[in-house]
Amino acid sequence: MKLPILIINFKAYGEAAGRRAVDIAKAAERVSRELGVNVAVAPSHLELALVAQSVGIPVYAQGADVESPGAYTAHVAVDNVKEAGASGIILNHSEAPLRLNDLARLVARARAAGLDVVVCAPDPKTSLAAAALGPHAVAVEPPELIGTGRAVSKYKPETVVETVELVKRHFPDVAVITGAGIESGEDVEAALRLGTRGVLLASAAVKAKDHYAKILELARPLAGR
């Protein structure tokens, strides 16, 4: 995983369905190229292969719940997203939480498959536990701020600082990124000043009227770092 990084989660928003997912991903790719910064996108499973075939920036899966392909109706395997073209995966988002044992197995499988692994966690202590599983990054996201427009970097900076300190002390090879309520380039800049190595966000970019302009604003604080 190249750091610092801006990860844009498309969730299941209608604005990122079908070919619209490609349009947003291409806007992100343009920003990445122009600013020389790392931007990754995480489309829904339905658009994952299409987006991965359409852009050269990292494309992450939004999750997985089983390790290997098999008789798992309506489930998604780590190996499946790798085959679809994903270069990374987000696990344990607050909207798709996992049990600890399952999370440990999925992290191990994803790393073995060569995927960048980002594990989400709601608070510093849970982030520390997540870091112990060996992902490339932990994304601390207080769930009560997700989608509110109240940026974690402004409304709960102490959560970010404590997470950075804990993880860096015990697992220095695991990066800390943050998310929840990030809406502006100013919010991203604040997160980086708190010691994070990137930001995970969704609606600010996906629901923007001008995707390119908004992603450019959000990614600009990463330039030169």
In N-to-C order, the SSE pattern is EHEHEHEHEHEHHEHEHH
The structural domain count equals: 1
How is the CATH topology named? TIM Barrel
* DSSP helical segment count: 10
Secondary structure tally: strands: 8
Strand order of the largest sheet: 2-1-8-7-6-5-4-3
The portion of residues assigned to helices is 40-55%
Shape: globular
Major beta-sheet overview: 8 strands, parallel
Low-confidence stretches: none
CATH architecture: Alpha-Beta Barrel
Based on CA atoms alone, the radius of gyration comes out at 16 Å
CATH superfamily: Aldolase class I
Provide the CATH top-level class.
Alpha Beta
User: Roughly what is the average pLDDT, rounded to an integer?
Assistant: 96
Structural class: alpha/beta
Distance between the termini: 15 Å
Strand content: 15-25%
Structure description:
The protein is globular. The protein has one domain (5-222): Aldolase class I (TIM Barrel). It is α/β, with parallel strands linked by helices. Helix 4 links the parallel strand 4 and strand 5. The protein is 42% helix and 16% strand. Strands 2-1-8-7-6-5-4-3 form an 8-stranded parallel beta sheet. The mean pLDDT is 96. The chain has helices spanning 19-35, 45-54, 78-83, 100-112, 124-131, 152-155, 157-170, 185-193, 203-206, 211-219, and strands at 5-9, 38-42, 60-61, 88-91, 116-121, 137-140, 175-179, 198-201. Helix 1 crosses helix 2 (45-54). One of its GO terms (molecular function) is triose-phosphate isomerase activity. Involved in the gluconeogenesis. Catalyzes stereospecifically the conversion of dihydroxyacetone phosphate (DHAP) to D-glyceraldehyde-3-phosphate (G3P). Pathway: Carbohydrate biosynthesis; gluconeogenesis; Carbohydrate degradation; glycolysis; D-glyceraldehyde 3-phosphate from glycerone phosphate: step 1/1.
